[in-house]
Every structure is written in C-alpha cells, then in structure tokens.
Amino acid sequence: MVRKKLLLAEDDELLASLLNFRLNKGGYEVIHSSNGKQVKEFLGQTMPDIIVSDIMMPYFSGIELIGYVRNELKSAVPIIIISSAGNEENVLNAFELGANDFISKPVSPSELLVRVARELNKN
Amino acid sequence: MKADDLLKRVSDLEVLLNDFSQGQLRIDQAENLKQVFLFFKKTLVHSISSTGMYHSGPTGAKEKTSFDPLRSPCAENKTEDHIDIRTYDAIVNHFKTYDTVLKSLNIEPPMKTEIYSSFIYNNNGKSVLEKRESVDLMPLLDDCMGEMELLEELLKLYEKNAMEFIGLAKIHLQNADYQNLKMAAHKIKAGLAMLKTNDLYLIVSQMEHVCETNKDDKYLHFLYNCFVEELPLVIESLQEALSDLRKNNKH
C-alpha cells in the first residue's frame, strides 16, 4: 500500500521527533523540514498529500507557507497548522489564508493523527 | 527582586483580578490568571526564602520544614537586605485578598500545590527551595508507544533545548533584544509543556509576557536566573522519573 506523503514543518526538534515517530507508525511517509527555506525548496519539487506546519518558523513562517501554497502553487493540499496558546490572531490569519485545521501546542500525537486522517478523508 | 518591586507587581495583579467578575471570566482567562498568580507566589516565596526570613529552627538547620506563607517572619533576622515586617504584612494581605478572589472565581487556590510546600536549609543557613515538582513521564512514554529509547532521546533534546535557551536568552538580555528573547521563550514553551515541567514553563511564559509588555530588564534578569537555578532540579527530577520507568519496565 502506498503511504501518504506528509510534510512536517517544525523547527522544534523535540516535538518534531515525537510527531515524526508517531506519524511514521501511523502509516505516513514523513518528510521533516526544520525551516521555511527547506519547505519552500521541497514544495517546488513535489507536493505532499498533506502539510503539518508550525506557525513560527525561521525564514518562512507557517502563515507565509499557506499563502505560498494557495496563491503561488495554486494547490488545495490540506494544511494543518500547529500553534501555541495565545496565538489566536495568527490562527485566524492562517484560516483566512486557507489553512484547513489547527492544533494547539503541546500537541497530542494521537489527536494529530486523527486530524490528519480526517483531512485526508475529506479529499 | 526587591520586596517593594514584588509588592508593586502583586498590587498590579490585584487590580487585574478585581477587574474580573466570575461571569465575565472565560476558562482560558481563569487559567492564565491562575498561572500568573502561581508564578508571583513562587517569586514571593523565592524572594522571602533567599532573604532568610523563614526559620523553623536554629539558623543552619538542615531539616526540611513546612512552608507556611502566613507565618510571621523572624524580626530578629531583619537586616537591610531583608523585607521589613510592614512590607511583609502588606504582601501577605495581598495574597489573602487574592485567595479570596480566586475562591470566588472557583479557581483552585495555588497554595494547595505541593510545589511550594517545603524548604531545605543549606550549611550557610540560607534557605533554598527544595526540589519540588515530581515529573510523571508515563503519559509521554504512552505517546512514545512504550519506546524507552525514544523517550530517552526526547529527554536529551529537552535538555539541549533548555541549554540553548539559556545561551540565547543571555545574549538577548545583554543586547536588550526583547523581540528575540520573546521568540526564544515562545519556542521553548512547547517542549516544557510537553514534559509538563510547569515551573520552567511558568518562568518562560512570564519572560515572554514581560518582553511583550513593559520590558522590565531587571525583572527579566531575575526570571532568567530563576530558570538557570531551576533547570538542574527539573533535569534531576526527569532523570529520576526515567530511572523509575526503567525499573518498572524490568519488572
């Protein structure tokens, strides 16, 4: 069975390690990027089935990433945003730009798996 | 931090608290309020303990003592560095008011927590907070699907992140670069919350808040020092918790 490609854009190694592990175990092929530059480069070459991205990332924020994917790449790939509590304004911006869902830190890996599956099932 | 600074902050908080009524307070606001309050209480305890105001026995006694925030300070220990009794009484009165307000808002009074419950005295008679927070790594081990190696790796990353934060925060403080300090504090919060190390989480949350608001340099230095002092205790607790998990796994 072909594993769905998931781009995980998260610069916090601690969180990324745990999510990477669980998403892999959950049957996804995870491509992890720790900064926006890498994300942009990757997206220029291939489009994953779903993107999970932190809002605050070096060089290229999660907000910029959504704008880039929706407006420049013209892709409707599902995007789930990871945000911290107290970042409500950014979350609203993310939705306005076309994010599909968001999950608050600290992220529960099980919850993320459910949300990822739900977004993929919608498509 | 000086006692009168502390008192001013506590007074500011009181004004904030009085602005709310139970019906107007959302759950997240109540939780934030509680966390801020907890932090201030901790700051107060730390400040008072470092001035040596609390003594349950002879100076230099090594035994653990119960911490009673409303106990009278030892007047004979008063020196220029110590909080004077009037200031102390004012602080205590403020906390009594807070407890009343918190109860009226159905927020659990923070002194129920064991975090602040005990002191230990070192050889110089100076009281320091005893190792306070026990850490439960079981939920994280569940998230790791029982993989001890992954858990150990996460703990190493946690420590690495914390050390990096110390280095970055020091530089940002030296440069009075509050924007980057705020970013650094914001970044580390997720990891601290992930391992439920609440003491450190409260400290960096407060740093982030101060960077956003009044950018009080002295207070930020104080918080930074709190983090530096607290981290080894937290790491020790994490190692103990890890060791317990290993033992349980063998059985």
TrEMBL record, chain A:
Q: Which Pfam families match?
A: Response_reg (PF00072)
Domain named Response regulatory is located at 5-120
| Residues modified to 4-aspartylphosphate | D54
Give the superkingdom in one word. Bacteria
GO process annotations (BP): regulation of DNA-templated transcription
Instruction: List GO molecular-function terms, semicolon-separated.
Output: phosphorelay response regulator activity; transcription cis-regulatory region binding
Which controlled-vocabulary keywords does the entry list? DNA-binding, Phosphoprotein, Transcription, Transcription regulation, Two-component regulatory system
- List the record's Gene Ontology CC terms alphabetically: cytosol; protein-DNA complex
Name of the protein this chain belongs to: Response regulator receiver domain-containing protein
The protein's organism comes out as: Pseudozobellia thermophila
UniProtKB/TrEMBL annotation, chain B:
Q: Which GO terms describe its biological process?
A: phosphorelay signal transduction system
Q: Which PROSITE patterns match?
A: HPT
- Alphabetical list of InterPro entries matching this protein: HPT_dom_sf, Ribosomal_uS10_dom_sf, Sig_transdc_His_kin_Hpt_dom
The UniProt keyword set, sorted, is: Phosphoprotein
HPt domain residues are 147-245
Which Gene3D superfamilies does this chain map to? HPT domain, Ribosomal protein S10 domain
Give a GO molecular function annotation for the protein. Answer: protein kinase activity
UniProt modified residues of type Phosphohistidine? H186
Name the chain's protein. Hpt domain-containing protein
